Amino acid sequence: MKGLILGLVCVAGAAAVPMLGNPYYTGVIFQLAMWIALAQSWSMLSATTGYLSLGHAVFYGIGAYVCVLLTGSVPFAVTLIAGALAAGIFAAAIGLPVLRVRGPYFVILTYGLSELVRHVVMRIESALGSFGRMIFIVPPIEVLMWCMLGLATLACLGAWAIRHSTFGAGLSAIREDEVAAETVGVPVTRLKLLAFVASAIIPGAVGGLALLRTSYFEPGQAFDPVISFTIVTMALVGGTETVRGPILGAVALTLLSELLWSNLPQLYMVVLGSTLIGFILFVPRGVSGLVDQIAGRR
Amino acid sequence: MDTLLSGQLLFAALVSGSLYALVALGLNLVYGTLRLLNIAHGDLVMIGAYTAFGAFSLFHLPPVISVFLAAAVCAGLGWAVYEGLFRRLLANPTLAKRVEANSLILFYGISVILQNVVAMTFTASSRGYQYLDTVITWGGVSMTGNRLLTLIVASAVCFGTLLFLRHTLFGWSLRAVIERREAAQVVGVNLNRVQLITICAGFAAAGVAGTLVSMTEQITPFMGFPFTIVAFVVIIVGGLGNIGAGVLAGFCLGLVETYGIALTSPGYRSILIYGLFVAVLLIRPEGVFSKAVRS
Amino acid sequence: MNVTRRWATTLLGASLTMAAAMPALAEGDPIRIGYSMARTGIFAAAAPSQENAYNLWRDQVNADGGLALPDGTRRPVEFVSYDDQSNPANTVRIYERLITQDDVDLLAAPWGTPMHLALAPVLQRYKMPMVGNTAASVQLRKVAPGYIWFPTSAIPDQMGAELAKMMKAEGVTSAALLANELPYAQEFRSFLIPALKEAGIEVVVDESYPPDIKDMTSMLVDVKAKAPDAVIAMTYPSDAFLFAGQAKELGIEAPFVLSLVGPTIDAYRKANGASVDGIVSSAHWSPESDAWPRGKAFFDAYVEKYGEEPDALDSALSFMSLEILQQAVEQAGLEPEAIRKAIFEGSFDTINGKVEFEGVQNTVTPTGFVQIQDGKIELVWPAEIATSDFQPKQGW
Predict the structure, then answer these.
(1) Best of C35, C36, C79, C100 to disrupt the A interface by mutation (most A CBs within 10 Å)?
(2) 10 Å Cβ neighbour count for C24?
(3) Inter-chain touch B92–A284, beta carbons under 8 Å
(4) CATH of domain C31-154+290-362
(5) Which residues of chain A does B229 touch, with a Cβ-Cβ cutoff of 8 Å?
(6) Which residues have a Cβ under 8 Å from the Cβ of B94 and sit 6 or more positions away?
(7) Do domains C31-154+290-362 and C156-282+369-385 have the same CATH topology?
(8) Cα distance from A153 to chain B (closest Cα, Å)?
(9) CA geometry: angle C248, C250, C251, nearest 5 deg
């Protein structure tokens, strides 16, 4: 409950940032909300079931693609919803065979799928004679930021709801021992599929919004594997045991890279890489675990 | 149709295939013995390419000599990474439990560091040098010297490694670690030593591949990632940790790519490769060439 | 004590001598110019050709005493730059930061078409002028004129028409087209095909390939069998290396061989040596031109500073964009609206000759093609700016 109130206060504070009159901060909040939404969505599948997806860029990219195709013919809110739906439907369509694959194979498979879709979209675009698509009328940055903040909130609430439900309990059972869970009657396949779809929907809308921010679509960028890597990194650095984890991870890494690139323009990627390594080795429970530890000692 | 039967196409397929097999060999060794998803593998290829380029442009050392240097540099990196990071990771039960996720992020960090250190040292400008690019025609097949050299060296290293694994004591212990980790320890295999040597060997193989690639491709700090991907495709098709099948799969991928393009259109190249990759993972995740199906 | 004093005297003497040797060293409050650069990520290999030109320009301006203002005073130039990781979303953020947070006086362009397109609305919103450089797409024309300009004339529709004209003039009757699937190459291909048809040149091969292609043998065997007069390879840098190596291996005999992006990069010629003599590529600048004497000076200074040749397309455009900015500031000062007006109305003298804008586009510089001749980049088309005649490719 305390966490919920704190969260709502943060959201309200963030939503008021445009009133500071400095669009740079609005941009930072947009970025922050984007990564929270993505990392939290990812955690709905990967943190709960232990099925580590390295291909969430595919949902982001599909959302962006659907959004750019529809832009101009329907209102912008509709393009976002369509992007989210498309991502969800795609997840539902591929879910059954994909989720049969486990462990490191699942990691690599999700990555491969994302690349496959990227190349298919590239092929379609070149067959259509399209060379990068531009959007000319985009909503102002404040509106985009508020939408993104809404998506981040939705993702956090969704993740919280999943973890505190029988659905979530079923998913945890899968993570602990899938075979055992199945023998005691947990509907393993259905639960995994639901989690997969749930974790795909919000990234679809996020992809659409992010596209409107840059107003230019190119498959190579919309399906950029770096997006997938960043999501996984943020969630793991934050800690996957709690709903707080991905939020803290996204905040920590976004702010850290924001600070680093403005102050250490040459070295910041090296520092960022070292930070990741340090975190994995010395802070295995992530920022979230670190916060617990400090709070516990007080 | 004539094209399909020409030796020219076969040569191209074998050159690509041998390189794929070599790049994948290193990754497979590291995955097989340590169960680590090394997504920085392509960056080691990049380090090998820069070593060869540096040796050539500063000291006029031809790649046939600098290949040893590149292997040594990469093996040194392997040693540093193992002693500095992975010993700790594998020794700690909490960390080792999620070894996939953790090794993924660790290697992501390493990849970022390697790329940017090289970019700072050499700038990100693309580099290249001219070596052995005379064309030899033999039996109607034209071969550029450096591509022929690539085929010979890559095949030699791959098959040499296979022979070594099959006929030496160390090779046996390595295979034992891959197949039955706990049992190997019980019969007295020094796990730590095997792992250290394997990671050095795996990295060195990437360095050799990098040297070969540097003769024909542009060299940049960010060139590595496609090699990582190709290596993963190959070892998945062959079966994770199955060294011999991995080499075979590398050559097969070269054939599939070259003949696939010839039969359809170059536009389908990447769709073909990723399609194959995804299909194998969905239908037969233990690899096309593996004998036993693990439950 | 004595030693210290002697040292101090020596140092003082040395610095006085140095000061005397450089009377025009820039002084005063620096003028800050902001930009973002793809120092990491997919575009990183291409970006140094741009940033090197920026740094060279800054050093030259500061050595001259600084950037001249309308009142005749000069102020030194300082860059504020960040890495955009080859991601247009970051580019947008960085320019917002440069404008609102860092409060820079002027802006220089980032690398790449997507970045430029993403920036246009930002510049419009904050009313900050920026002269673009490394962007080329017909979509640029759709950008509403305002605060961004594109000095390039390597825009695919004009290039398609000009290339067809050039090919016809050289007696080409058949052509093979190989195109990367990335936007610039595809755009060029879409304009080239109708232009070739109009010029009566038959297209005997037309293939597209993905950017991560690793082997072109089957495509090139097909090209060789059809024996066209011209091979038009719409490459990006990495596949330009592949194309050159494999076309040589197979002994492609066409007298007219074009490789779209790549041949003007220094490393391309270092890796391929004399084999790539005769390759045609896209650029509208060459250091060899007598008409633009400053071009050679730029080339020499660049080679001296970086030990490699500037890219005839990106480096030249980047330097030009800052020359335009420099001349606009000299005339109009630092007030954004005044600069904007000056750029719209002015005529600029650059290393690539005169530049004038209409809307967002440079309407003066002709669309050209260069050819590697004896390892040098020579302009071979169109005739009015050519530095050499086209020479049919003689083997590899």
Answers:
(1) C100
(2) 11
(3) yes
(4) 3.40.50.2300
(5) 115
(6) A284
(7) yes
(8) 26
(9) 60
Domains and CATH numbers, chain B: 2-283 (1.10.3470)
Map tokens 């050595």 to a residue.
C63
pLDDT in tens, chain C (396 residues): 344 444 444 444 444 444 444 444 556 799 999 999 998 887 888 899 999 999 999 999 999 999 999 999 999 999 999 998 888 888 998 999 999 989 999 999 999 998 998 899 899 989 999 999 999 899 888 888 889 999 999 999 999 999 999 999 999 999 999 999 988 999 999 999 999 999 999 999 999 999 989 999 999 999 999 999 999 999 999 899 999 999 999 999 999 999 999 999 999 999 999 999 999 999 999 999 999 999 999 999 999 999 999 999 999 999 999 999 999 999 999 999 999 999 999 999 999 999 999 999 999 999 999 999 999 999 999 999 999 999 999 999
Residue A22: list chain C partners with CB under 8 A: 100-101
CA distance C27 to C49: 28
Q: Best mutation site among A96, A108, A111, A175 for testing chain B: the one with the most B CBs within 10 Å?
A: A108
Return the half-sphere exposure (C-beta side, CA atoms, 13 A cut-off) of residue B259. Answer: 16
Structure tokens at C285: 């600048």
**Cα–Cα nearest to B104, from A240, A35, A104:** A104
Q: Which CATH superfamily is domain C156-282+369-385 in?
A: Response regulator (3.40.50.2300)
| Structure token digits, residue B119 | 């970019």
Query: Smallest CA–CA separation between B284 and chain A, in Å?
Result: 10
Judging contacts by C-beta atoms under 8 Å, the chain A residues touching residue B282 are 97-98, 100-101, 109
By C-alpha distance, the chain C residue nearest B118 is C40
User: What's the distance, CA C94 to chain centroid?
Assistant: 22
Domain range annotation of chain C: 31-154+290-362, 156-282+369-385
Q: Which of C45, C178, C215 sits opposite B257 (nearest CB)?
A: C215
d(CA A23, CA A153): 21
Chains that touch A (3 or more CB pairs under 8 A): B, C
Rounded distance between C-alpha atoms, residue A137 and residue A212, angstroms: 9
Q: How buried is residue A176: exposed, middle or buried, by Cβ count under 10 Å (0-12/13-18/19+)?
A: exposed
Q: CB-CB: which of A131, A214, A220 is closest to C118?
A: A214
Q: Which residue has the tokens 């041949």?
A: C263
pTM comes to 0.93
Strands C31-37 and C369-373 come out as unpaired
